[in-house]
Structures are given as C-alpha cells and as structure tokens.
Amino acid sequence: MNYRRVFGHPASVFFQNGIANQETLEMSSLSAEYEEGFPGFICSIYEIPNNDMMKNGIPSMTYLEREEEFDIVSVPYIDSGETKEGGILCTKSTDETFLTRWGKERFKKNYEEYGLTTIWGWERNSGLRPCAPYLRHCTLAAESMGQECYDSFLDETFLVDRKTTIRSYLKANPQVMTTKPPPGLEERYGG
User: Fold this and answer.
1) How many structural domains are present in the chain?
2) What separation in angstroms does the CA of 139 have from each of 85, 136, 189?
3) How far apart are the first and last CA of the chain?
4) 3-state class of 3 per DSSP?
5) Are 31 and 92 in contact (CB under 8 A)?
C-alpha cells in the first residue's frame, strides 16, 4: 500500500543498449513511488537469497550497481492475504542521491553524454514516454502472471503525468507491442 508504479525516469541502460528514442521521448523506465493513500498494486513476488541484495535493510553495493538510479527500500507486502515484511522495491530517488552515491563522472557518462540533465526531475507535463521495447517486455511479463496481475499492470501503472494508465497508453499506441528488442537483447527484453 501507499506505492504506485510510474514510468517517470530515463534509464541509462536503455541508451547504452540503443533502445531509447530521444526524439519521441520513449526512454523512460519503471519504478515505484510513495503516494500516501494509494491502494498499491499487484505484482509477482518471489523468494531469493538476499545476502547479495540487502542486509539489515541496507542494499548491497552489488545490488546498487545493478539498480544504480533507484532508492532500494524494504516494504511490507501481502501474500495470500497475510501481511509480510521485507519485500524489496526499487523506488523513485533524486539526482542528488545519485550524485552523492556515484559521483559527477558517472552521471556525466551515463546521462549527460546522452544529452540528459536529469534522471528524476521530469515534470508531469514533460511528455516522457516508456521505452517501447521495455514496456512491451513488462506488459508480456505481467500478462504471463495471470489476468489479475496483468490488469493491475495495465490499470495501476502510470506515465510520468501520473494520470495516463498503461492500458490507455497501449490503446493509443498499439505499435508498442510489435516493437521487438534488437538482436542480442531478445532474452533480456523478451517478456
């Protein structure tokens, strides 16, 4: 509860892999963000040994390297009607946190060299859109988890404006679902 999914920031990995489209602003990735009173969303949960991810509620450097732009938080979640603790969630962060954690040189290499001046400072009216191959991948993955998870992804995930649902966006942009990843990324972004 109190979190929503938002395609609200560009991910450096999309530029590095050549799947970001700066001309159309189709370059955003997905994160969760805290929003008081928001009912939450349905997602897949799974158990993995987290020694390499979190220890005492603090993300490991290995995990931070992989998810460089996010704040990694431990959150409660509901599994089979029972509230549990310790779910790991990649959440909205700030440019300042990135700079403190990784430094100006990394920001320059991963963002400024692609013409970006911010990761997290995209306004609601900026026109930022999901990276098409990544959105296709997320949609296919949600669909494979069953109707309830799929509907939650479509109806409880938003564009940067925090109003447009992914269902509405895909209806207006059906070409997204035919945007296949380039060679070499089929497995990573294949759904």
Assistant:
1) 1
2) 27, 5, 11
3) 26
4) strand
5) yes
Helix axes 147-155, 132-144, angle to 10 degrees: 150
Q: Is residue 39 part of a domain?
A: yes
Please give the structure tokens belonging to residue 66: 């992989």
DSSP assignment letter at 187: T
Can you give the residue range of the structural domain that contains 131?
3-44+95-178
Contacts 24+ apart (CB under 8 A), 52-59: 53/88, 54/88
Judge whether 103 lies within some domain: yes
Beta bridge partners of 90: 72
Give the span between the Cα atoms of 186 and 191, in whole angstroms: 9
* pLDDT, tens digit (0-9, with 9 covering 90-100), for 151-173: 999 999 999 999 999 999 999 99
State pTM to two decimals.
0.88
CB 53 within 8 A of CB 59: yes
pLDDT tier for residue 182 given thresholds of 50, 70 and 90: confident
Residues in contact with 93: Cβ distance below 8 Å, sequence separation at least 6, in sequence order:
69, 70, 71, 119, 120
Beta strands in the chain (DSSP E): 3-10, 26-34, 54-55, 58-59, 71-79, 82-91, 129-130, 157-159
The answer to whether residue 9 is domain-embedded is yes
Residue 82 lies in a domain: no
Cα angle 66, 72, 73; round to 5: 155
